[in-house]
Each structure stands twice: as C-alpha cells, then as structure tokens.
Amino acid sequence: MIKEVFLTPFQKFVKIESFSGILLLLATLIALVWANSPYGDIYREIWQYDIGIVTETFEFKKPLILWINDGLMAVFFFLIGLEIKRELLIGELNSPKKIAFPLVGALGGMLVPVIFFFVLNQNPDTAKGWGIPMATDIAFSLAILNALGNRVPLSLKVFLTAFAIVDDIGAVLVIALFYSGSINMTLLVIAIVMLAVLYILSYRGVYSKFLMFFFGVVIWFLFLKSGIHPTVAGILLAFSVPIRQKIVTSTFLEQLENVYNDIKNASVLKKPILSREQIQHMDDLEDWASKFQSPLQHLEHNLHGWVAYFIIPIFALANAGVLIAGSENLELALVINIVISLVLGKGLGISLVVFLAKKIKLIEVPSDISFKHILGVSFIAGIGFTMAIFIASLAFASTPEYIDSAKIGILIGSFISAIIGYIILRSASNNAIVSEG
C-alpha cells in the first residue's frame, strides 16, 4: 500500500515528462525544418519581433525570443525551484543517505564534462561556453527511459530524476554566478528585501497567490534590470512557497462531513442554480479545501502541465531553429568540443565516479541497478537539450555564430548520447531476461 501511494505520483510525473520529451522532439524537428526551408526568414523575423510596453515616459520592449528565454523560462525555473524544495524537505534528497547516490553522480556529470571542454577548447573566445555540457534534460532523458518500459527498473528512473534535480541546482548556481551581467546593487537589494518579506510571511504561515504573483513580477523585473538573469528570480521565489498544509487530514475530513451535511440540509431551488445557502456552503468547502492543500504541491501540480506541454516546446521551437545550410561561419571546433563533452564527459564522468564511490563504500546503489544500467543512464544524461541551449544563449549572447555552433553541437551530442544510452540499457535488460530464463 505504501509503495503504491509513493510510486503512483512518481509514475504520473514520469509520464508527463516522457510526453513532454516527445513534444520537445517534435518542436525541435519543426524548428530545424522551418529555419532551413524557403520560409526560414519568416521563422527568424517572428522571434526577433519586438513586443512590450511603450508610453511617453516609459519603454520596455524585448524581442519575442527574449520574452520566452527570460520570461517563460522564469516560470520553468520557478517549477524547478518548487521541485528542489520538495525534494530537499520530504523527497529523494531529504537525507544524506538518499542524496549520496544522485549527488555523486551529478558531481561527476557536471565536473568531468567541464574538464573535457577546457582540455579540448583552443579558442579563448569560446572558453565561456564551459557551462553548456553540464546540464541534463530530464524530459528527453525520461522519455528514453520510458520507451524501454519495464525493461528499466523504477529505481533507475528515480535516480535519474534525483540526479537531474541536483544537476539543475548546479546549473542555476552557474547561471547566477558566471552568466549574469554587471550588477546594479540598488535594484538587487530592493529585490532581495521583497524576497525577504515573502520568506517571512511564508515562515509565519501566510501565503497569498495574488501577493506572490505581484511580488514575483516586480522581483523578476528588478532582477532583469539589475544584471542578474531573471530566471534566477524564479528559483528564489519558489523557495518562498510554503510546503506545509494549514490543516491536517483528520480536521479536513471532519469539516468535509459538516459541509456535506450542511449542503444536504440546505434548501434546493427548482431552477438550475444554487440557493444562497448552497453557495455559502460551497464557499466553505472551497475554503477548507484550500487550507487542506499544500501550497507548494498545489502550485507544482498546476504548473507541471503548462511547463511540460507548452513552455518547454515553445522554447525548443524558438531556439532550435539553427540554419545548417550555408553555415560557413560555424565554429567547427566548438561543435566537436560540445559533442565530445556531452557524450564522453557525461557517459564516463557519471559512471566512473559512481563506480569509484561505490567501491570505497561512499554510496549504496540499489540492488536492482547494475553497472550496465548506470553506464546506460550516464550516456542518456548527455542529452543536455533545454538547459544546455539556454546556457549557450547566455554564454555567447554577443556572438550569434557561436550560439549556432553550440546548438548544433548540443543537438548532435544529445542525439548520440540518446542512441548509445538506449542501446546499452536495452542490452542490459535483454541480459537480465536471459539470466532469469
């Protein structure tokens, strides 16, 4: 029973992320075909179209692609922040024993690709792209694992999810520390004070989604203008959302019974509308339901579909359209560097570090996960699509040809990583079936 209660939400999460990975792939293919078709100019003009607010005293305009990368992606990072907070407090990262396995894997998956990048990089102008091969795209990765069905143990999917969350923490820190511009301390201090107000209210159990939305928009704008990338504001805002319910289950059930009896005894109109008493009792029901729900869990649940099925595919559609035909200005060395750093950096980095950590008994690997499983999922972690493209757009903001080169490297590296990882995991599952037979 306990196992079923725990696994069902996780399995739903895996299905959402897997379908998101399919949408991500479709959006990527559409972007690539569109950008390299006779209508490629229209593709580029759409994303560079300026949208914003212009008055006599105020002007705030940005190209559509920046509204996506700075605005919609802030919502994506907000969701990541909610997931990180939940995992740290009550999930797979809430104890040293639980966090050890994915933490070791994530460290290997972040540090080794960076080392590969610096060793292979010969151009000082492309050195700032070192953060690109660090990230893992959880949607694409889980889509690959889900395609293998029951051939892959569920504990391996749990490991990949926890690993990707630790990986996201590292990517966010890298973006905040190394890929932000010159900082306006005055605006940053104002934003931090507003965040502090939200944290204090959260600590005292006060939460309002309207206040959160208003503060969130202002803090996002202040981060944008202060020089810190506004997506970092999304992470910090998420940590101000309370996880604790206002009432426990037993209290809610008591009140639910009272409301049920009240609605049952209320007067009923002959018309197809509610009576005044019924409306009042329905308001009571909504009020008790609101108190019973965890604000963090409720927000995470509501946002997950929007992020998985809309924001991430739109991001891919806007960013994956690389002009391949006639790309004489591509930096081939950067393309090769990113491909190798993603494929070998992730594939060897994660598996070898986990193997060594297990050998010296620093971590404990679940019994149903073999080394071949770890090797396969390590290569799958080389699918760095969403976060990698995002970091590339920050690293080479002033050099479009490097951005295109980085994107091509990311696409090729992610594709190769997916193929190798899939073959290894399928082979591991076939061996398991043979040995059982």
UniProtKB/TrEMBL annotation:
It comes from the Bacteria. It catalyses: Na(+)(in) + 2 H(+)(out) = Na(+)(out) + 2 H(+)(in). GO terms for cellular component: plasma membrane. Signal peptide: none annotated. It is a multi-pass membrane protein. One of its GO terms (molecular function) is sodium:proton antiporter activity. It is found in: Cell inner membrane; Cell membrane. One of its GO terms (biological process) is regulation of pH. InterPro entries: Na/H_antiporter_dom_sf, NhaA. PANTHER family: NA(+)_H(+) ANTIPORTER NHAA (PTHR30341:SF0), SODIUM ION/PROTON ANTIPORTER NHAA-RELATED (PTHR30341). HAMAP family: NhaA. This is Na(+)/H(+) antiporter NhaA.
